[in-house]
Amino acid sequence: AAMRTSRIKRTKTVCTYCGVGCSFEVWTKGRKILKIEPQAEAPVNSISTCVKGKFGWDFVNSEERLTHPLIRKGDRFVEATWDEALDLIASKLGEIKQKYGPDSIGVIASSKCSNEENYIAQKFARAVIGTNNVDNCSRYCQSPATAGLMRTVGIGGDAGTIHDIASAGLVIVVGANPAESHPVLATRVKRAHKLRDQKLIVFDLRRHELGERADLYIHPTPGTDLIWMSAVTKYIIDQGWHDQAFLRDRVNGWEEYVASLERYTLDYAAERTGIAREQLIQIAAMIHEADGTCILWAMGVTQHMGGTDTSTAIANLLLVTGNFGRPNAGAYPLRGHNNVQGACDFGTMPAWMPGYEAVQDEKVRAKYERAWGVKLPEQPGLNNHQMVEAITKGKLKAMYLFGEEMALVDSNSNHVEHSFEQLEFFVVQDLFFTRTAQYADVVLPAAPSLEKDGTFTNTERRVQRFYQALQPLGDSKPDWEILQLVANRMGAAWNYRHPSELMAEAASLAPIFAGVTYERLEGWQSLLWPVAADGSDTPLLYKERFAFPDGKARLFPVEWTQPFHPGEEYDLHLNNGRLLEHFHEGNMTYRSEGLTHKVPREWLEVSTELAKERGLESGSLVRLTSPYGHVKVRVEVTDTVQGKELYLTMNTRDPEAAINRLTSSYHDKITHTPNYKEMSVKMEVLEDK
Ligand code: SF4
């Protein structure tokens, strides 16, 4: 028995899926993953996990893993050595840079990769290629939340911790489905609601699990959240329920802001949002009476043309009611991927260096130029959306993309795939031969989190270490090692031997990480940024100051934006979102037996009324058409959705059923986040049942 256990290895890791950031031990024997064992020491989840964290690991040993570099020869891909692949990449990127300039190249980073890997990716883009054209998938999800918070309170992160959410008097969830997208966080809310009588209000088009449990479930007219938020805020002010001392001492912009609310009367809001006057009053009263209000939001708010403005309205409401800078209160944009927070924090964004210091700030650039020994580009680069447009205009010639299934997850995917065909040179680095890889010239085999060391940052700004449990499969390598090899072929002389050296460099340059070291993160320890040089971290933001030079927050007036509608013939509203058992395009979860067994495919939710009207039943096959494409999907008749609103699960491995065949290229005005949630379609019933 001793022999047997001695061959079993236990390694602390951090979940590779959602932004909750659960950590646990993974038990391995050779390459076999025996079990996931949560431990009481885990700072976020203690002994809990969800089904993905527990059963979602088979993909690591999938026969479909890439184990060698591949190079395109005509219509085929052939196996190549690392030397051949690296030489080709260096010479092609070098040529393109020479011929068209550094801004003809773009880098797409990955929120499935570590902080250190995102740090080295932005350094590669800026210092080696010489461009700020670097972005990550937060552009598809929470960039509007970041922008809304930066306008008002100064930091694009959760105000406090998951503990604060669980301890709040009132939790308001807007356009998010935590029970499926952030399951362990949702269990905290469910428990607080049940045991402590925490109050819960849910705004969503679907009556999902938290909606069912809420004290108040509200179905607003799609795309009208800013209106009810503004009306509730105005009503609170009109009642004299605003936090006058807090507003006087800590907040700027009161008069202009109050003037901007004038039109948002209860009647105006009731008419446009479909929420009854009495309910609007009830919401205001619940906020007024609560001992601390937390507002949680996700894609239902951000993926609209007015996504940044609605996120701003959330921050305004919380400022007016004094719900910042105190425990058990504040703004909580729920981060999707396990490291989408970290990818942004470590600078894979076109306008921000690591730690949210502006690219355009001369002093910031000078600091990095000294440290890196290069001259840096001065202007912000292109974001994901702009890169696609620049390809179609012939301005962007080459792209280096890692850990991102852009061909399926970017909106209007027919258009995106068409743009990829026009690239002169395309490198894709991933675990699998993805849909996106089909358009590549070189495909590089990367290693998942279980095969490397690093850190991830969860939705609470909590940085946690994960440790290597397995060797990289075949010839695959950790993403940071690959990026260093490519950089060195292109003339850099980097010599990072371990991710801790990348973290040390980032900490020496970005003030919010000043005190982050691998020693302080050893084992189950974690740090919530900003982290001072002495190692003290910040579970609760804005205790004394907001992140502006005068230390005061700013109320920021915003106006409602009419959602996009393609025309009357598209008579059904189509919403989309996640499933508990699968993650995004499903490249990892559909390769995990335990999950695929539970949920083998996507489906379309249709209301009972609509099913009756169109003669549909569960299992019917329908075609949905938008101006941008069509999909074929199976129907599930349900009471979760109502009337002419449909819901398509976004996790699919069938490109013919992928939601983004239907979505448009319209986007949030400020951040260019696609308006995935503003979609209308028409539906035909197909013969097959
Ligand atoms: Fe992983 Fe999120 Fe599930 Fe936790 S809640 S186990 S982080 S997917």
UniProtKB/TrEMBL annotation:
- Gene Ontology MF annotations: formate dehydrogenase (NAD+) activity
Arranged from A to Z, the UniProt key words for this protein are: 2Fe-2S, 4Fe-4S, Iron, Iron-sulfur, Metal-binding, Molybdenum, Oxidoreductase, Repeat
Question: Which EC number(s) does the record attach to this protein?
Answer: 1.17.1.9
- Keyword Kinase carried by entry: no
Domain 4Fe-4S Mo/W bis-MGD-type as annotated: residue spans:
8-64
Return the similarity comment: In the C-terminal section; belongs to the prokaryotic molybdopterin-containing oxidoreductase family.
Which protein are we looking at? Formate dehydrogenase subunit alpha
Q: From which organism does this entry originate?
A: Tumebacillus lacus
Instruction: Name the gene for this chain.
Output: fdhF
